[in-house]
Amino acid sequence: MGRVKRIFLLTFFAVVACGLNAFAQQQEITDTSKPIVDTPKAVKKATHANKRSDTAVSGLLQKIEIVTAVINDANNLLERGFDTLDISDGLPDVEAIISTYSQSGNEKLESFRSLKASKSILLETTYKLKKWQASLAEMSHNLAEIHDRLHVLSRDSSWLVMPEDSVLRELYIYQLGSIVQKWKSCDSANKQCVLRIGILQNRVSSTYLNTDAALTKVNYQIEHFQKRLWRPEEPSIWKANEINTPRSFFEVITISLQGMQKVIGAYLSTNSSHTIGGFVCILLLFGWFVFNMKRIRNYNENSKAVLSNLVIIQLNPFLAAAVFVITFLPFTYLHPPPSFITLQWSLLAIVYTVLIWKTFLHWFRKYWITFVLLFLSVSFMNIIYFTTIAERWLQLLLVVAAIIMGIITFIKLENPGRELPRYARPVLIFFIAQMSCALVANLFGCYILSKFFASSAVYSILSAQALYACVQIVVEAIYLQFEAYNKVSFFVSYFNFHAIRQNLLKGLNTVAIIAWLIILFSNLNLYDTIAETVKDFLTEERTVGNTTFNFQSIVIFLLVIWVASFLSKLIVLLFDHNTAGGSIKRNKWGSALLLIRLGIFSLGILFAFAASGIPMDKLTIIIGALGVGIGFGLQNIVNNLVSGIIIAFEKPIHIGDSIEVGGRYGTIKEIGIRSSKMSTVEGSDVIIPNGDLLSQHIVNWTLSSQFRRVEILVGVSYSSNLRQVEDILKQIVFNQEGIEKNPSSLILAHEFADSAVNFRMLFWCDNNNFIVIKSQVLIQVHEAFKQHNIEIPFPQTDVHLRSDIPVLAPDKDATDNQSSKKEISTKPAKE
């Protein structure tokens, strides 16, 4: 009976839980939805019909092990892979927030600042809900895969094939029963997870729809405010009375502070990791500054002179790092509310003031403190949600004070000795203009517009100062890194900081100007409008003939090409060979850099086509057009390009080599893709096409060695003691600084000339200094010969006059003069 019972349980679980179609066909049952086992007799018959040879038992057991492992993996994933605790805990708070926005409908009590804060919160909520939806969708997909894998196992008919041996059959039945229990448990857990995640998906989806509706409502209100921005929303200030402002000033401040606290708290809780990341960046930047400064003090003998070039970082490395990170941190947040931005910039104003205080000119300090107080006051008024009479009068006084302060500061700048950075005057003029607009707008009832102008004015001053400081911090940080590793790092030693600084300032200033404009337009509430207008203009489809295009693809194409060109120039910039004194260091990397630049350009073109969405088959058309152009008029350009590649591989010249080509002598300054630059000794730069470099004979004085042989011919009179002359010349060459000892110098009697015995002085010296050394040797030879009374012969001309031409004269004596003749003879003479 025990054996029959185990067989019955096996067949019952297999049929009910798995629904085996194959076994049903063997029993000739047409309705597979009904139970196929009714009596023990049928069970015995089924078991007997599906017996297998005992040699296949090992395969069945191996299959059981595989299936058990699959079910165990599914159970582990169900237990640990579907944690929805964060979503379950955070969803009620989100639902409460959205419920508040959905129920609020009093648009008159909403200010523009409160609407911007609401939009920020709703956008953050939308972003969070999208993340939850994506996470739940992935969980649901994984659960569906688990369900499919489990039911694939249930439809396998090979489970009912029994071993013939009774002992093996009992063992197999026991293990199969265990698998059935695990399968049922796993399937039940899977269904529970599907139910739980399905409920969460419905709640998240419903909340997302409500959030989208609330966001649409807030966007409509903001657009309504923007349309009415240039029209008075309040009466003129001289007509205003308490009836127009039902709330008191202090009541409005209390409400605004409470709202600011809630908004900032909610935003910080949502972006806590982002804020912590910013603080970590400050610590890392501070540690980098301190480490490099300590390294310079330990390993550089002139550490004080090096560190004295640091204007900002040396004041306080931590505050310098904080200013840099806080300045650019607002650009990294997604949809920050106005109150959060105000808090960040207020913190930046305080930190920047503490950092730069010592560098301010004495006369400028009181004006800067006044400006900081003005900035904090305007920023505080910027977070007030509702308008009151007291607020409008207070803002009017602040704006008038700001205009007066701006005018006085601008007048002070005209005095000598009170210079500020070049951008100070235009920014100050812009500050005064915006404050004047704020004053006029407040007087005539456009109070929201007045707030925009006032906040934009103070932010333009602070952001200009902060961005200028950030540019200086970047340059000083690079200088710090360069000086810390210049003498110990082979890689850093190739960098030319002087060239990097001069060129990097241009790019950094451009980035600073763009950032300043973004801040300005954001404060004037024009950034979104401008961005949308530009986006619509770029993405609009245009048709020319049969070709459809948009300007976005063209801009992307040109941008990628510009980036490739910039990277190519950056390679040259990093490894520039011009020193601060104007000389050129010799470097054999010039050819490798040329190949790198060619590779960057080639990849840039391919990426430009791919990124802009231009079909790659168009590239073949362009190449074909270039082939036609090469055949007609681009032979020289292609010749120069190919010659540049040949120069890169053969390396006949390097940057810093002294060469003679085309009758000109100079130093190779740059090896370009099409042409190369040679700096002559006269100070001019000669641009030589690469094709001409290969087609002409090049004399490279420094290809294999930096030294060159100098020859000087010296003549002495025949009466001189030649051995003495030889000794004197040897002594001069031996004692002259800059002449190489190896190879050794030679003093040779060269020839017997017409008026002198000539000696050859042959010596080796550095190619860059051979002219100076040759001059010093000549001076010493002249002085030594003069001291030892050794004559240096030189050609001399004697002129003899003779008269033998007859002259007609009235007296007798004159007839004796018959002629006159001129005779000129030359001969050598002694000194």
From TrEMBL:
- Entries under SUPFAM superfamilies matching the protein: Mechanosensitive channel protein MscS (YggB), C-terminal domain, Mechanosensitive channel protein MscS (YggB), transmembrane region, Sm-like ribonucleoproteins
Gene Ontology CC terms, in alphabetical order? plasma membrane
Q: Where is this region: Disordered?
A: 809-831
This protein's membrane topology, according to the annotation, is: Multi-pass membrane protein
Domain Mechanosensitive ion channel MscS: where?
A: 636-702
Q: Where is the composition biased (Basic and acidic residues)?
A: 810-831
The record ties this protein, via Gene3D superfamilies, to: 1.10.287.1260, 2.30.30.60, 3.30.70.100
Give the top-rank taxon of the lineage listed in the UniProt record for this protein: Bacteria
Tell whether Plastid is among the UniProt keywords: no
Which Pfam family is one of this chain's hits? Answer: MS_channel_3rd
User: Which residue ranges traverse the bilayer?
Assistant: 276-293, 305-329, 341-360, 367-387, 393-411, 423-450, 456-482, 503-521, 554-575, 595-615, 621-649
Per UniProt, the keywords (alphabetical) are: Cell membrane, Membrane, Signal, Transmembrane, Transmembrane helix
Q: Which residues form the signal peptide?
A: 1-24
UniProt lists the family membership as follows: Belongs to the MscS (TC 1.A.23) family.
Name of the molecule in the record: Mechanosensitive ion channel
Origin species: Limnovirga soli
